[in-house]
Amino acid sequence: MSGKFIVIEGLEGAGKSTACHEVITLLHQYGIKNVIHTREPGGTPIAEQLRKLVQQKEILQEEVTDYAELLMLYAARIQLVNNIIKPALEEGSWVVGDRHDLSSQAYQGGGRKIKPNFISYLKEELLGDFSPDLTLYLDITPEISLQRTQKRGALDRIEIESLSFFTRTRNRYLTLALEDKRIQIIDATEKQSKVTSELHRKINQWLKKYCKFII
Ligand code: Z5A
After folding, report:
1. How far apart are alpha carbons 91 and 158 in whole angstroms?
2. Best probe residue, ligand 1, of 11, 16, 168 (max atoms within 8 Å of C-beta)
């Protein structure tokens, strides 16, 4: 594969949408024109249907169990990875993803308390050694996350979870980020301009180290 896969992660309201846009603009400035933008869950017709099932509050008047949620997220992910991301990388395009596997480790492993070993098993079976080249984790507190998302109005099925759910999710993100040098943490509680300049700094540093042909 010749393209690179960069992922933006974080709690809702962390600023992932803005960050994805910034990364794509920066890559364009470096002359990398073929960049595709993905989101998870979603990004293929089947994955978008699964996204609706995961997010809607009333699903056919039936409660979504934690394992069903996890499996729907992996079903969506494997559709996206096999049908969109891998082919794009193989033809040399770069992919900027709004969330990927780390979200399941954090939300379902941390928030929902599903055994991390089970999630790792699913990941290995379904994705093998496929993983992002770089993940930028935008770290905010659950309190700030709630403040920012509540401003938007109606909350979805996961957004209505408790503060302790999001605290466990954030803690899992932080634990995993500190264990893996391909995950970089950005303090996203700062004002937008500061977060953006830190994002630029980290991407520039990474491009210098791993993509010497660019700079
Ligand atoms: N989910 C899961 O559980 N497991 C999985 O494996 C996957 C997902 C893949 C869909 O996510 C849901 O699925 C999500 C996790 C779960 N549910 N929850 N809860 P999503 O990515 O589609 O939805 P989201 O995370 O809720 O997106 P978002 O809220 O739009 O977050 P964002 O993109 O990070 O934020 P934003 O749109 O860039 O910013 C939100 C607002 O905050 C906006 O008004 C900004 O102006 C403001 N903002 C952003 N940054 C700042 C700073 N620095 N200062 C002040 N204000 C700011």
Report:
1. 35
2. 16
CB environment 125-163: b (16+ within 10 A), e (fewer): eebeebebbbbbbbbbebeebbeeeeeeeeeeebbebee
Rounded distance from Cα 83 to ligand 1 centre (Å): 24
Please give the pLDDT value at position 213. Answer: 65
For residues 3 and 200, what is the distance between their CA atoms, to the nearest angstrom? 19
Can you tell me the mean pLDDT for 10-33?
Answer: 96
pTM above 0.85, yes or no: yes
> Which CATH number is correct for 5-210, 3.40.50.300, 3.40.50.970, 3.40.50.720, 1.20.1250.20?
3.40.50.300
| Cα R_g (the chain), whole angstroms | 17
Opening angle at CA 96, ends 72 and 42, nearest 5: 25
Statement: residue 128 has pLDDT above 80: yes
How many whole angstroms from 13 Cα to the centroid of ligand 1?
4
CA distance 6 to 121: 23
Nearest partner of 135 among 162, 108, 114, 106, judged by Cα: 106
Model confidence pLDDT, tens digit, residues 164-193: 999 999 999 999 999 999 999 999 999 999
| Amino acid in position 104 | S
Task: Note whether 34 and 92 are within 8 A (CB).
Answer: yes
